[in-house]
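During the reporting period, our protein records have gained a structure token line. One record among many is quoted in full directly below:
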Amino acid sequence: MKRFAILGVLIVLGLSPGSSVRAQGGAPALTDSVGPVSFLVPPGWTRTVYPDGNVYASPMFNNGERCQITVFPMRHAPGGDLLQAALGTFRTMFQAEPLMGYPQPESTLWRGTSPLGWDYTVVRKSIRGQVGEYGSLVSVILLIAQVDSELGVVAATSKDPQVSMCLGDVARSAWPGFFYGLRYTQAHSAAPESAWRQRLAGVWTSATGTVALRYAFTPAGRYADAGATQHWAPYSSSEVMVTTDAYFGNGRYALQGNQIVLTPDSSGGVTGGFFRLEHESRDRGRTWADRLCLLLEGIGDVCYQRDR
């Protein structure tokens, strides 16, 4: 079946943040659809239509990586747990076990509800090799969305996230932009803003070795943010100078569907983008943690863990 041929090609969409999503290079993204599913495709991509799905292929990246995304027609939901449906679809489609651990790379699981009215589960795993074999591993992202009694299926592949230029952890990932552009015409109307403010309320933190970011949201539509960046520079042959830049801000926020607008109290200007609230598991579904991801103009997609 043609849907299984997607393992031979590597997938990604190159989308940028903002309420008007644009492809890499600043060109407007193109809208396409498969039945009741609509989504954004960057210009220059080729489309191949099969009976069991549309395949969108990018030009070749300079690391030899060709990207692709496949959107399948809606199918009947068999019932039961959506996570189990996603795991079963992964096994059938890619002939691989998504919950297999070392020496294979571990999987990451996400599940949540889109503010646009549909539940989803995402399985991400690198297959076709072992940990460290970055050049030969194929990274898979499988999205299963439930809309009433039907399932929407999207499959994306790339090189391993450690080296991928399109769905990577080191280079920028285009998956968030594609995700936020998904629309299912039969989905229920978006939940009221007040309900999402309640879910968003709390303190969220993201930290790496050199950057720390923090947001606090209230149900009343107020937010506070803080950030710090650490820089290391040689001071002498035996000393290193460490400097830390910090900022703090307060303002109000507004939600509409899956979009968020941050308006600071100062004259710093308005920042628009997208948000998603979901649960993440990195131990094969045994434990789950709350996660907030913000795709903001000029920043890209940053995900935060709930502090309280």
In short: Residues 1-26, 229-247 have pLDDT under 50 and may be disordered. Residues 193-256+258-306 form a domain with the Lipocalin fold (CATH 2.40.128). The radius of gyration is 20 Å. The chain has two domains: 2-184, 193-256+258-306.
